[in-house]
Structures are given as structure tokens and as C-alpha cells.
Amino acid sequence: MPAVRGRRDNVSITGAMAKTGLDSNLDILRSVAVLTVLLTHLLQVTAGCKFDEHIAYGIETYSLGTVGVLLFFVHTSLVLMQSLERTAAARRGWPLIRFFYIRRAFRVYPLSISVILLSIAFSLPPNALGTPYKWGGLRWLLANLMLVQNVTGSGLVAHPLWSLPYEVQMYLVLPFLFLLVNPAGSGIRLAVLYIAGVVLSPVSFLFRYVPCFLAGVLAYKLARHVRPRFPAWLWSPTVAGAVAYYTWAPYSTRRPKDVMICLIIGILIPFFRANRGIIAAAAAQIAKYSYGIYLCHTPVLWLVYRQLPIPGWQRPVWVVIGTAVAAVACYRWIEHPMIELGTRLASRKANSPAARSIPFATAPSFPDASPGS
Question: What are all long-range contacts of 201-209, with beta carbons under 8 Å and residues at least 24 apart?
């Protein structure tokens, strides 16, 4: 048993070190992602675009918004792989998977359900581009509440919800990916999985973004074995350059460029030293409230541009202020309490007699490692 305890302690330390080294850069990545989505919809509204009109001020806004979501996908899978590694210090096998599922459910669903119910209660349109609110029936409501719209083919109560079903479906398989890629010599397994994901991505819409999520898994794996080499100050321009490249690349190449941009970002993440200073501090705050920003900015845009008699030059300012206030309120009154509740419930389940009776060796072990080894 002492040997087992030592292994678990080492894994915990490794996870903590890896998290500390990547945190600030991941905050910047997440901040760029959510601000890109916000900028996309702001450009569309100020340019007077209607739904399905993608060009605003000469910018292909569909690509601009899409690349923000793709960065979210890479970021999310990487961060959750780190979270699973830290959790694996105390739990293995089914207790680890159950702990992960419970926490993710309490992380993603409370705010999405709140936004959906408020949108329906106040007949809020799904976007700020002139699309009217329309009740879609009970099946439509349940599909949105469960975040399975991409499976049922149901319309969206709010358009930012489109990406959440893909994330939820990723949550279902990510713990198994974690167990699969952590044993020694699992690099080949990950390579085979990635190639399979790329091949399957055009086959079905359910697999469309699998390579993007796997790029985050690749970043996690690389971070355990490579040493950061590039200066920290280059990270922000690199992410901004990736956004610009994707936005201005031909729209017709969107599937190949989805794969390429996520792969490039995933490979590069572990090679940059951690950022410090004002940019990192600001990014940490934006990243903290990013889920609220993502879901709340659309109704704020609609309110400011479609409902309130605000002078035109003031509207972008009020959009930023309104979105920030809404995001902070959502975090304090919905997200944070539900995150804590989910953690308590998951811990209670993990400490139950049934969970303790599951053998420790139900999951594969993985070798001790340190960043840069």
C-alpha cells in the first residue's frame, strides 16, 4: 500500500505542476475564444446583417465565430484531461468516471437551463439579427434543456447553445480517453485515435468536431513530455494569428482548416512559457466568467440594439458593460453555487461504501512524470 500511495501522490504533484505552468496561457486562449464570438455577433449586428448573412465590414463572420468555438473545444478537452489527472490521485475506475460526470453536469447544465427558461419566459429571440422568437413545442424544449439538439435536429432556443451538445457528448467519452492514453507507450494509441477522428469527421455531424477535441488531448499528452521553449510574449500573437488565418482562409476549405487550426494550436500549447503580468491577469478574469459571456451576450445585444433607445455610438459600450454584469451575476448566483453543489454531491458518492468497495486496480496505472521530462 505505501507504494500505491506514493504513486498517487506523485500523480497529484505532476498534475498540479502541469496546471500551474499552463494556466495563464490557457486563460488567454479561452479569453480570445469567447471575445472572438462576442466580436462576431457585435460586427453582425452593427453591420445590419440578417441571419445567414455572414459578411460584415468585409469580414467572414461565420469563420470568425467558428474559430472561437474551435479554440473552446481544444481548451476544454485539455483542461478536463488535467482535471481528470488531479482527480485520479484519489479515485480510479468507475468512481473517477462518476465523479467527473456529476461535476460536469453541475457545471454546464444549470446556466444553460437558466438561459433557456428565461428566453422562453420573456420570449427572447435566438439571436439579435432579426429572427423572431417562436415556440417550438415540447420536444424542442426538452432537446434544448438536455443539450441534444444536434441529435434530435431541433431548433435552438438561443443560438450560442449550438456548441454545447458537442461538448456534452465529448464529456461522455473523455474519461475513457483519459484512461486509454495514460498508460506508458500510449502515444501510438492516441495517434490512431486522432487519425480515426479525422477520417470520421466528414462521415457524420456527430463526429464533425472530434479532431478538435482530440487536439486538446494531444496537448495534454505533449505537456507531460516536452519543455516550454518559446517566450511567453509570443503566445497571444500566435493565438491571434491563428484566428486571423482561419478567418481569412477560403470558406470552402472549412473542414480541413477546422482540423489544421486545432491541431496546430494543440501542438503549440505546451511549447510556450507561462504568461505573467497584466495580460495574464485580465485573461484570468475573462476566462473565469467566459461561460456567462458566451451565453448572455446574445440577449444583451438584442436588448441594446433592438429594444432600448440608446445612441448608436454608445451601444457597443453598453453591450460590453451589460454582458460583463450579466456574466458576473450568472457566475455568482448560478455557476459557482452549482459547481460547489456538484463537487459536494460527487464527493459524497465517491465516499459511499459502494464506491470504496471498488478495487483500486480497476483503472490502468501510468508512469510518474514531471513537466519537461
Answer: 201/255, 201/258, 201/259, 202/255, 205/150, 206/150, 206/151, 206/169, 208/166, 208/258, 209/70, 209/73, 209/166, 209/258
